């Protein structure tokens, strides 16, 4: 019979067998899948697992700190390397407005940062040659490097099909590893669905903030600023987004809605009046949706009082924003994210 306890025991045993005395690396995104995969592998091999969290500077307010904290609390022992790559991503995104170009740049920079972090770790562990010309040569002892991924059953099925959403937007993912490295994938969630992963995560003691975290796109706020991504614009969006999330949480709506992107129309301005004066600020879009699997979605009917509180607070507390608008488009025809 299927119980979370059985799944955990079985997967821990499998991972132990697969990795043996080796070491493994896992890229953490802050989402539930990679966190549960890491926690399972950590149970199997302890501190021979190193997790890498790439902070691309496109996360929401306090999010990176929360991810670090939740990770520390839930995985007693696994090592976490946090790479601060904000400036690298901002530089790479300067002047870029096209959505697909943004996605490709973010995906590319992510892989660069992750590869470098990974090479440093492998060198430290003696899997790679000490220094040298920068190329990734494995040492003579031929140790295998293991890479943990939180691939779920639907991901396996979808990549088998090889069509659909991937053609609409380029989803960023860990990929493009150097070919001369003999990486072996460890995917302890390959047979599970999302709700099962959540159950396993709870059983493993992961905090609710991680287990029930709503989906958040890999490219982060970079695809929620319509126009060029800059530090100032990110800060404005972060403040507005934090207010929206706080009010939705306070209203007890977190598990009723799938997610609520908050989108800054950075290249649009409109006239307003705040205090005694005219303003010429930016609109922000609230995009609350309900969904089962993100393939289709409905706009969520958030109560008017809650929308009203969000609007009042954002326009009072974020001076750059003088208008809050609601997106009432289903998917299709609109996608969930604006880019
Ligand atoms: P769309 O906008 O395609 O989004 O309707 C569907 C779901 O996927 C999330 N999303 C992403 N997740 N990397 C991710 O990990 C991405 O590049 C990405 N783009 C969109 C989106 O938040 C929604 O839940």
TrEMBL record:
This is GMP synthase [glutamine-hydrolyzing]. ATP binds at residues 29-35. The keyword Nucleotide-binding applies. Keywords: ATP-binding, Glutamine amidotransferase, GMP biosynthesis, Ligase, Nucleotide-binding, Purine biosynthesis. It comes from the Bacteria. Residues 2-213 form the GMPS ATP-PPase domain. Its EC number is 6.3.5.2. The chain holds residues 199 to 537 of 537 of the full protein. The keyword ATP-binding applies. Pathway: Purine metabolism; GMP biosynthesis; GMP from XMP (L-Gln route): step 1/1. Homodimer. Catalyzes the synthesis of GMP from XMP. It catalyses: XMP + L-glutamine + ATP + H2O = GMP + L-glutamate + AMP + diphosphate + 2 H(+). The gene is guaA. It is an enzyme of class 6 (ligase). One of its GO terms (molecular function) is GMP synthase (glutamine-hydrolyzing) activity.
